[in-house]
Amino acid sequence: MPKKIEDVTQKIITAALEIYHKEGYDSLSMRRIAEVSGLAVGTVYTHFEDKEALLAQVLAGEIEQIMTQFMETVFGKQPKEALYGAIYCFIGRMVETPEDVINQVVNFESDKEYIERTLFGIRKQVQQLFVELITRVFMEYKVDITEKDAEVLSELLFGMLNSISLYGVGNVDKRSRLVFDMLIAYAEKEAARQKENAAKKTTKTKKKS
């Protein structure tokens, strides 16, 4: 792609990002983008079919930055510390910047095909990372957990993150700790249950012998 075209495309994306963060999705129109970027409306349409196609690309770029931050937060840390860090990272973005793309990823609400397709792919990436973190934490507690169960817990986690975001600005650490402690409490309960079942099984085996 010629540099001139790349520059124009980036100019459009930069303007869209500015509008998206400062004014919200409803203010994102091709005409508004043209105003902010200083380009003609026709030029904007030449590069993007409609605002949904543009937003899909904007979201993809945004989530790449978020995923980088996410990985930096959890890299090299122990399972529980990594899980808490990930939860804190997400809640911080959702609470402090309500228009942040992460809210759309967690809420996953859109009737636009471009956006739905993009958000679905992003959500699957985020969910898989949480599944891995949850699995690592449960393994630390010596709890046998299936991938399906880890996926269910990740969905519950998304639900908790969504609920917390609805209450607006607040203590990020306190809210993160609330979600984290609930997951840890369940892991501890499962560890105790599985240990008790194993003990009962051992006792039955001894009686038979």
Strand content: under 5%
In DSSP terms, counting alpha (H) and pi (I) runs of 4 or more, how many helices?
A: 9
| SSE-based structural type | mainly alpha
Number of strand elements? 0
Order of helix and strand elements from N to C terminus:
HHHHHHHHH
Enumerate the spans where pLDDT stays under 50 for 5 or more consecutive residues.
none
Radius of gyration: 22 Å
Helix content: over 70%
Q: Biggest β-sheet, characterized?
A: none
Average pLDDT:
81
- Taken from the alpha-carbon principal axes, the silhouette is elongated
Determine the N-to-C terminus distance.
76 Å
Keywords:
209 residues
What do these coordinates show?
This protein is mainly alpha-helical. Helices cover 81% and strands 0% of the residues. It contains 9 helices and no strands. Helix 2 crosses helix 3.
Topology:
Blueprint: H1 3-23, H2 30-37, H3 41-47, H4 51-74, H5 79-96, H6 101-107, H7 113-140, H8 147-165, H9 172-208
Helix pairs in contact: 1-2, 2-3, 4-5, 4-7, 5-7, 5-9, 7-8
Task: Provide a short characterization of the protein structure.
By secondary structure, the protein is an all-alpha fold. The protein contains nine helices and no strands.
